[in-house]
UniProtKB/TrEMBL annotation:
It comes from Lacinutrix neustonica. Keywords: Signal. This is LysM peptidoglycan-binding domain-containing protein. Residues 69-112, 124-167 form the LysM domain. The keyword Signal applies.
Length: 168
C-alpha cells in the first residue's frame, strides 16, 4: 500500500508540473496571445481568424490607388503583399524606389513595374545591372526568357553585370 501512495504522489507531481507551462500574456498586432517562453511559440487567445500570408497579400490596397504606375501605401501593406499583388519581386520593388531598408510609411508612393522610360524604350540592347535576372529583363522588355537566351547564345540562365544583351 505504501508503494501505491508513493507511485500515486509521483504521478500527481509529474502531472502538476506538466500542467504548469512557462507562458506570458502578450499582445501581438493588437491581439491578445499566450507566449510560451520555452519554445518562443505563441497562440492567439481571441477568436479572430488568423490570416495566412497569401490572404494578407490579397488585402493590399486595391489597384484604384495605382495612378501613373504608382501605388499608395495603405495600412497593412508590406513589401511582400505589394510584390505578390503586382507580380514583381521585392528586390525589384525596392530598386525601383531606391529603398535600402524594410520600412514603408502610410501614404508613401511606390513605383510599380518599370519606369516610363523603360516602358517606352525601343532599345535593341540592355546592359545588365546588379539586380537584373533574365526573368526581370524579360518582363521589362516583354520578351520571353527563351528568346533572350537564343538571341544572346546563352546556354544557362547565368548573366553578369556589364554584359550587353540583345533584345531584338
Amino acid at each position: 500500500m505504501k508503494l501505491f501512495f508513493i507511485i500515486l504522489l509521483s504521478f500527481l507531481g509529474m502531472y502538476a508540473s506538466a500542467q504548469s507551462t512557462d507562458t506570458l500574456d502578450v499582445t501581438i498586432d493588437d491581439r491578445p496571445a499566450k507566449l510560451n517562453t520555452k519554445t518562443g511559440k505563441f497562440i492567439f487567445t481571441d477568436k479572430a481568424a488568423t490570416k495566412s500570408p497569401v490572404d494578407k497579400a490579397r488585402e493590399v490596397s486595391q489597384p484604384k490607388t495605382l495612378k501613373n504606375n504608382l501605388h499608395t501605401v495603405a495600412k497593412g501593406d508590406t513589401f511582400y503583399s505589394i510584390s505578390k499583388y503586382y507580380g514583381i519581386s521585392i528586390p525589384q520593388l525596392k530598386s525601383l524606389n531606391d529603398i535600402k531598408d524594410n520600412n514603408l510609411e502610410i501614404g508613401q508612393q511606390l513605383k510599380i513595374g518599370y519606369s516610363q522610360k523603360a516602358m517606352v524604350s525601343n532599345s535593341k540592347t540592355h546592359t545588365v545591372t546588379n539586380d537584373d535576372t533574365l526573368y526581370s529583363i524579360s518582363k521589362r522588355y516583354t520578351i520571353s526568357i527563351s528568346d533572350l537566351k537564343g538571341l544572346n547564345h546563352l546556354n544557362t540562365d547565368a548573366i553578369h553585370v556589364g554584359q550587353v544583351l540583345k533584345l531584338k
